[in-house]
């Protein structure tokens, strides 16, 4: 297995630092101070212009701060954002949607995955708000996600290592469990995800 370094960035400065620092993949968002929101097409285009190594750039789909329980109107916004960002060179997308009971909202996820097709999708840290993580991980696999970003339902991935290890053992090679959250770099001014173990 090889370790892939992903860095979450929200602007040109942090993207340049991450690329120069050897990032293998970027997760692009806006407004990290609010937990990350959907980036603009203009930001994606400018980052692609400086991306001489052709590092994959995954775009976050999150139309507002707060919880991950979305109204249909909000889902339509994220679907349209996915179509636009896909046309402007996104390598994949990162999103997550939950139901009020804390389960993965399969209907909404299917809708957004369809809008992202054929690009790969990652289920983001909405997973850490699932009430039954070992059950919902199977739902996420069945939906067709390639990765799950999680801190193991704790504030940091280091604190959640017990659940993360359990999930990795449960899923085998069916999906990548990507530990993330709580690790920051002053150099990149972004968030580092250092645990994507790609098969």
Give your account of this protein's structure:
The protein is α/β, with parallel strands linked by helices and 199 residues long. The chain has a single domain (2-198), classed as Copper homeostasis (CutC) domain (TIM Barrel). Helix content is 34%, strand content 21%. It is built from six helices and nine strands. A nine-stranded mixed beta sheet has the order 7-6-5-4-3-2-1-9-8, covered by helices on one side. The longest helix has 16 residues, at 72-87. The chain is globular. Mean pLDDT is 91; it is low at 183-190 and 192-199. It comes from Callosobruchus maculatus (Southern cowpea weevil). This is Copper homeostasis protein cutC homolog.
> What distance lies between the first and last C-alpha atoms, to the nearest angstrom?
5 Å
Enumerate the spans where pLDDT stays under 50 for 5 or more consecutive residues.
183-190, 192-199
Helix content: 25-40%
Number of domains: 1
Q: What is the CATH topology assignment?
A: TIM Barrel
Beta fraction of the residues? 15-25%
Tell how many strands the DSSP assignment holds: 9
- Class by helix and strand content? alpha/beta
Average residue pLDDT: 91
Helical region count? 6
Output the strand order for the largest sheet: 7-6-5-4-3-2-1-9-8
3D shape: globular
Topology:
Layout: E1 2-9, H1 12-20, E2 25-28, H2 41-50, E3 57-60, H3 72-87, E4 92-95, H4 106-116, E5 121-123, H5 133-143, E6 147-150, H6 161-171, E7 176-179, E8 184-185, E9 190-198
Offer a few descriptive terms.
Copper homeostasis protein cutC homolog, disordered C terminus, nine-stranded mixed sheet, TIM Barrel, alpha/beta, 199 residues, copper ion binding, 34% helix
């Amino acid at each position: 297995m090889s370790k892939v370094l992903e860095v979450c960035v929200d602007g040109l400065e942090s993207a340049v630092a991450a690329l120069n620092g050897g990032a293998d993949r970027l997760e692009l968002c806006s407004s990290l101070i609010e937990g990350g929101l959907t980036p603009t097409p203009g930001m994606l285009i400018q980052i692609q212009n400086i991306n001489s190594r052709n590092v994959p750039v995954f775009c976050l789909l999150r139309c507002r701060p707060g919880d991950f329980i979305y109204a249909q109107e909000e889902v339509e916004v994220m679907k349209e954002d996915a179509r636009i960002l896909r046309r402007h060179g996104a390598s994949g997308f990162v999103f997550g949607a939950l139901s009020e009971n804390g389960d993965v909202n399969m209907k909404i996820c299917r809708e957004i995955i369809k809008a992202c097709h054929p690009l790969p999708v990652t289920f983001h840290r909405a997973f850490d708000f699932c009430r039954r993580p070992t059950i919902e991980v199977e739902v996420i696999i069945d939906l067709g996600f390639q990765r799950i970003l999680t801190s193991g339902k704790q504030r940091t991935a280091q604190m959640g290592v017990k659940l993360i290890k359990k999930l990795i053992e449960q899923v085998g090679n069916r999906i990548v469990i990507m530990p993330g959250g709580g690790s920051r770099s002053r150099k990149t001014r972004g968030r580092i995800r250092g645990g994507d173990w790609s098969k």
